[in-house]
């Protein structure tokens, strides 16, 4: 294990043991969120509250954060943990600053997600499920993210990147690493042609 990995692992242990308290701003957010649910149904706010906690923790959910959410919603901690561990949108261990969720379901696979994954792994020097030693990137495989029409695709933090090619994926990674805007033209040439065909038909 490299020193950086040891540091990361130590950080995750320390952070996981620290008590978790929502910031003042997030406590106000929680009040607004809870108002959206009928009296007695506040437990249904588990998803937005876990999401809020995850954002506050830098993209992952330490056990203490899950327990705090459970306490707030007056539910057993194990039930909050069940929810947090069910959805891939929640991370139970530290992730990179740029968390890449690569779709590997059939439509994306048929359109080249394996190649996209290879580019990510070779460019970043990590395998799926790992974080780069500098903590900048993490990579995971996920199931369909609902953008099959523009396969292959990946979600990086809150953004979708669609119609990926090995070249565009590499550019995105390079841009993220250097702090440039990572957004690229999301419309494939195939889509552009079909859109221009439609426009011609409409004339
Ligand atoms: S299969 Fe990849 S987004 Fe649906």
Describe this protein's structure:
- The mean pLDDT is 87.
- Helices cover 50% and strands 9% of the residues.
- It is built from nine helices and four strands; from the N terminus they run H-H-H-H-H-E-H-H-E-E-E-H-H.
- It has 203 residues and is α+β, with helices and mostly antiparallel strands.
- Strand 3 and strand 4 form a beta hairpin.
- Helix 3 packs antiparallel against helix 4 and helix 4 crosses helix 5.
- It has two domains: 84 residues, Arc Repressor Mutant, subunit A, CATH 1.10.10; 81 residues, Glutaredoxin (3-Layer(aba) Sandwich), CATH 3.40.30.
- Strands 2-1-3-4 form a four-stranded mixed sheet, with helices on one face.
- The site of FE2/S2 (inorganic) cluster (FES) has 11 residues, from helix 6.
- FE2/S2 (inorganic) cluster binds next to helix 6.
Which residues sit in consecutive blocks of at least 5 with pLDDT less than 50? none
From the 3D coordinates, which CATH architecture of the largest domain would you assign?
Answer: Orthogonal Bundle
Largest sheet: 4 strands, mixed
Task: Give the mean pLDDT.
Answer: 87
- Give the strand order of the largest sheet, numbering strands 1, 2, ... along the chain: 2-1-3-4
Order of secondary-structure elements: HHHHHEHHEEEHH
CATH topology name of the largest domain, in short, is: Arc Repressor Mutant, subunit A
Question: Regarding CATH, which class of the largest domain?
Answer: Mainly Alpha
Identify the bound ligands: FE2/S2 (inorganic) cluster
Count of helical segments?
A: 9
Can you give the helix content as a percent range? 40-55%
Strand content: 5-15%
Overall shape: it is: elongated
Quaternary state of the chains:
single chain
Q: Report the radius of gyration as a whole number of Å.
A: 20 Å
Count the strands?
Answer: 4
């Amino acid at each position: 294990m490299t020193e950086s990995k040891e540091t990361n692992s130590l950080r995750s242990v320390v952070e996981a043991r620290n008590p978790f308290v929502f910031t003042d701003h997030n406590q106000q957010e929680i009040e607004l969120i809870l108002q959206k649910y009928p009296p007695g149904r506040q437990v249904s706010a588990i998803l937005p509250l876990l999401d809020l906690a995850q954002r506050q923790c830098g993209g992952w959910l330490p056990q203490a954060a899950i327990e705090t959410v459970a306490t707030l919603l007056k539910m057993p901690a194990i039930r909050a943990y069940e929810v947090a561990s069910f959805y891939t949108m929640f991370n139970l261990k530290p992730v990179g600053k740029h968390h890449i969720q690569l779709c590997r379901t059939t439509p994306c696979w048929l359109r080249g997600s394996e190649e996209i994954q290879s580019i990510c792994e070779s460019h970043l020097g990590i395998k799926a499920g790992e974080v780069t030693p500098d903590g900048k990137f993490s990579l995971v495989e996920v199931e369909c993210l609902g953008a099959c029409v523009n396969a292959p695709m990946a979600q990086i933090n809150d953004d979708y990147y669609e119609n990926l090619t090995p070249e565009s994926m590499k550019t995105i990674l390079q841009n993220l690493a250097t702090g440039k805007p990572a957004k690229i033209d999301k419309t494939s040439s195939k889509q552009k042609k079909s859109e221009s065909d439609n426009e011609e038909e409409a004339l």
